[in-house]
Amino acid sequence: MKFIHIADVHLGAKPDKGKPWAAERESHSWQAFIDVVTKAKEEDAQLLLIAGNLYHRQPLLKELKEVNRQFARIPKTQVVIIAGSCDYLSPSSCYSSFPWERNVHFLKEEKIGCIELAKIQTRVYGLSYQHREISAPLYQDIPSPARDNFTNILLAHGGDEKHIPFQASDFRDKDFDYVAFGHLSQPMQLMDAKVIMAGALQPIECSDVGPHGYFIGEIKNHMSQVRFCPVHYCEYVPLKLKISREIAEEVLKKFVEDYVKKAPPYQLFRITLTGASNPKARALPSSLGKISRVAQVLDQCQAGHDLEQLKVQHGQEILGRYIHMLERMPQDEITKKALYYGVEALMVE
């Protein structure tokens, strides 16, 4: 039985607001979803599993109709859906009464249910979120399915303390042939070829670094094989730059511009600045943030002075007292910057 497993498609999301490429990014989730449906058709996949958060929020009726039109393209593929933490089944949700195509099956209850697909000898177990958060470990005590000629799959959504926490080991002794998870943004095999977190089909936040896509697999004689298929509409790439007082701002800016130009066009960059702060390059984060395809710049630079030595040398002077005072305050970003710039100003005097 050949299947495709996706999750966290987040249709309707609007990533990178305010960026020149924001309008293009808004279309990526839809394009990636259509690509998956096309792949299901090309591969003659018998089953498409959607492990929650097909939408980024409560879906509009026109959005449900568009997705249903896509499912109509693959009448030989059975589609099983659960609602996740973002598109949960609220009392007013359009999900509740929507008339899906005959090949589409929705596990709507917030308790474990089962859909039996006799033509492909498969049972799919699962539940939908009817609330934004579920802190109870609902998958922990799920009974093991019957061991017979049917393939048994658990379609699930969760993985942190507010969204059905679980451990991969919870399923080690369960007779599920495959456990298809959604919710966490990074794709990962939590238990080799058996418990899989699909990850977001495409990233929606620049912290969702690395490749994204879907899993395609086959289950035969209760044994599963899967492979990850990346989808390259967008990939956020982390780039760490260690700076110092000796490196000129223009040199760093030129390096980043050249680095971005050489990268594949679908990659966007999340830059983290580390090392010693340079008082002559205070505008560097802002300057780097204006470079094409730079999505975010995080300034994690530290003061370039040996504060302990300065306290010894200037303990009773204004500089020493200033350092002592700032160190006693809560160490958030504002305090760190106040300490750095204050020391710089007092050193000049």
Summarize the structure.
The chain has helices at 22-42, 61-72, 249-262, 284-289, 307-313, 318-327, 333-348; strands at residues 2-6, 47-51, 78-82, 104-106, 113-117, 122-126, 151-157, 178-182, 188-191, 195-197, 213-220, 223-230, 235-243, 267-275, 294-299. The protein has 349 residues and is α/β, with parallel strands linked by helices.
Question: In words, what does this structure look like?
Answer:
The structure is a single chain. The chain has a 6-stranded mixed sheet with strand order 4-3-2-1-11-12, covered by helices on one side. A 6-stranded mixed sheet has the order 5-6-7-8-10-9, with no helix packed on it. It has a 3-stranded parallel sheet with strand order 13-14-15. It starts with a strand and ends with a helix. 25% of the residues lie in helices and 25% in strands. The mean pLDDT is 92. By secondary structure, it is α/β, with parallel strands linked by helices. It has 2 domains: 2-230, Metallo-dependent phosphatases (Purple Acid Phosphatase, chain A, domain 2, 4-Layer Sandwich); 235-348, no CATH class. A hairpin with a 3-residue loop joins strand 9 and strand 10 (195-197).
